[in-house]
Prior knowledge:
Elements (H helix, E strand, L loop, with lengths): L4 E4 L11 H8 L4 E10 L5 E3 L20 H4 L20 H8 L4 E6 L9 H11 L6 E5 L2 H10 L4 E6 L6 H7 L4 E5 L5 H10 L2 E5 L4 H10 L4 E4 L2 H16 L2
Parallel strand pairs: 1-2, 1-9, 2-4, 4-5, 5-6, 6-7, 7-8, 8-9
Antiparallel strand pairs: 2-3
Helix pairs in contact: 4-5, 8-9
Amino acid sequence: xxxxxxxxxxxxxxxxxxxxxxxxxxxxxxxxxxxxxxxxxxxxxxxxxxxxxxxxxxxxxxxxxxxxxxxxxxxxxxxxxxxxxxxxxxxxxxxxxxxxxxxxxxxxxxxxxxxxxxxxxxxxxxxxxxxxxxxxxxxxxxxxxxxxxxxxxxxxxxxxxxxxxxxxxxxxxxxxxxxxxxxxxxxxxxxxxxxxxxxxxxxxxxxxxxxxxxxxxxxxxxxxxxxxxxxxxxxxxxxxxxxxxxxxxx
Length: 250
């Protein structure tokens, strides 16, 4: 099993998702070569790392991310919901995460948006990436095709990928039309036919979100190039060790 391990929102099964605690914990594990994270914009245009459009689930704040200034967002407690050990953990800015990860791990940066919710998001994210010369260390993904088209328009050098939890018949054509070279897809949609098609078009595939060994091993058997996105890098390591032991048993 040589499939790349992608830590979903960091080591999010143990630490609060999309926080520096989760990212640092993931980066301590040698099997984690990629991390996935979500980016939105504060009211004053700062790219911030948080999944939900609203603050209630993962912080002690209220309301929408887009309606809150960065000065207020960075004071919120984004860790207590996960456990007392994480009380005081904060929402990080994208620049903080990039500074921490630069040269150490590659990033799948999801633009968390719907329609024209964040018209300035692609440009703001591109600015932070280019500032650190990380163009070849990231892939920009989104459920929103228009956001991916905008990224390619502003930064043709960046790799982009569509996020989808389906397998429509025109998937390859849609990816090619958007100039995507990456596909982030719900893991139950991955099979050999899909991988043959994507391989033939030069498109990298990441399967999400896989937290059990049986599913990880099944994906590995389908294709060793499928990237496995997981909340549980520790389970990925167990699956890797069990699979490897079958082939290297003395």
